[in-house]
Amino acid sequence: MDAFQKRKLVNGIVLVLSTLAAVFGIMWLFWILGTLIYKGFFALSIEVFIGDPPSPGDETGGLKHAIVGQLLIVLTATVIGIPLGVLAGTYLSEYGRNSKLANFIRDMSDVMMSVPSIVIGTFIYALLVKPVGHFMGFAGSLSLAIMMIPIVLRTTDDMLRMVPPELREAAYALGATKFKVIKDVVYRSAITGIVTGVILAVARIGGETAPLLFTSFNNNFFTLDMTQPMASLTVTMYDYAMSPYKYWQELAWAAAIILTVGVLGANILGRLIAHYGFKK
Amino acid sequence: MGVSIDRVFAKVALGAALFVLFILGALFIVLYKESSLSIQAFGVWKFITSQVWNPPLEKFGGAPAIFGTLVSTVIAIAIAVPVAIGIAIFLTEIAPHFLRTPVGVAIELLAAIPSIIYGMWGLFYFAPFMRDKVQPIIHATLGKLPVVGSFFSGYTPGIGLLTASVVLSIMILPFTAAIARDSFKMVPDILKESAYALGATKWDVMKDVVIPYAKLGVIGGIILSLGRALGETMAVTFVMGNQPVIPSSILEPATSITVTLANEFTEADTDLYLSSLFYLALILFVMSFFVIVVGKFFFLKKVER
């Protein structure tokens, strides 16, 4: 075999191996998705959405408490996290630019994005749950908000910096103040990007379980009171999946598919807005 | 009037930006303060090396949890990285063009699936599969080897260190593959085309052009995946077994920092117990902090320049 044939042979082997790797990786993911769709689909019913929480051994009951809790916790996190993230991103892009402070904050925000989510849960526990003396929905929102801030900050910063300086200069030339330029020119031209970032951030935190385990905890009753322990889809899934009751485990699969559809739906929505928004 | 809104807005924006630094600093200080009781009782070195985790006797050592975190992360990375690079090669060089975008998007969407789904699947499907199909084979083959055989034998209920590591590797696979693919894509076409023009095969181009060019990005991506695997909780909590021991075999139940926290945090009934759990959280925070800093600033920063 000459050198050329040998190279071709090695090439063939590597190409086959990497195709196999792709098939191998994708096979696992299909197994997981297939299971989720199969189990989740059969567990779904109207009862799942409107039923009250089941008692041990019950064969009826639903996830209304967890669905509403999940929405409340994520919504509150969004209301706290987004203004802070957008404002901080605005500072970095419009005021700090490439100053040492701005670059340092950018780096630290990237670090914060990768802090293990369960560590943030313990942090809020020490800060809020322990002094107050009981778990509460609001504490869960707060830990999710902390996870959102660096994500929103990053996209806002990136998107605002893409706004051409000429636009700002034109507005300044007309006598606009800096605040007016930011509000009416910069935000207006970057709005698609900011909205995309916000939706992707919501999708990212919507499926988090670990930071809720010891902040909002769980509640086997329906409640709208954010100062009390509050059920979420994720923590309920964890508890029900670990329980010995067949019906509870089925509810856990139903929760899994509701959560996944919600999170993936938000993710796809964000991508679509980005795709079509930027085409124009 | 206009001027004052201007100033207020600038101050508020600066405040929001500084808030990020404040949170990061507060995280460290609060975790340190909460664990100080345990730090005083057990010290640093003794806590890291002690294998005794016994809440009723109020003896706490972090070695089993730290061991589980490190070993499961290393095994997960060892499985995920070759597969992820294979997927990246497939997506950038082999797959027909009409497949590249859909498969690429599919992999990115898979990275968005909540980790608790991976954990639940692991508990109900993968752990029984490991118990009934894979572990008997491992027992009969690797378990029979001299010297290293004991790492692959023992009591194997399906859930354990290896099962958790495999679930973890599947969990980080889409993330790692997406980063590797993006790094490969950044290689200028002209470099690849020149190599092809000289008669290079696809593998020659990968080996001598693409991989050297994309090396820093791929390594940075691997380190970020490592950081992700260190702190991942739900994918492993279901299948690790939560046994606070250093197992003699990787098939046996074990624990990790995140698994211990998820299982025991709400049950800690004494101050020292809770403080020891905070100590573990602090150790995890410091470990992931260093991993991220190395990955982001040592490798990925060089890529940007």
TrEMBL record, chain A:
Keywords: Cell membrane, Membrane, Phosphate transport, Transmembrane, Transmembrane helix, Transport
Subcellular location(s) per record: Cell membrane
Domain ABC transmembrane type-1: 67-270
Membrane-crossing segments per the record: 12-33, 67-91, 111-129, 135-153, 185-206, 251-274
InterPro entries, sorted: MetI-like, MetI-like_sf, Phosphate_PstA, Phosphate_transprt_permease
Pfam families assigned to the protein according to its UniProt record, in alphabetical order: BPD_transp_1
Single biological process term from Gene Ontology: phosphate ion transmembrane transport
PROSITE patterns: ABC_TM1
Record GO cellular component, one term: plasma membrane
Molecular function GO labels: phosphate transmembrane transporter activity
Membrane topology of this protein: Multi-pass membrane protein
Protein family per UniProt: Belongs to the binding-protein-dependent transport system permease family. CysTW subfamily.
Protein name, UniProt field: Phosphate transport system permease protein PstA
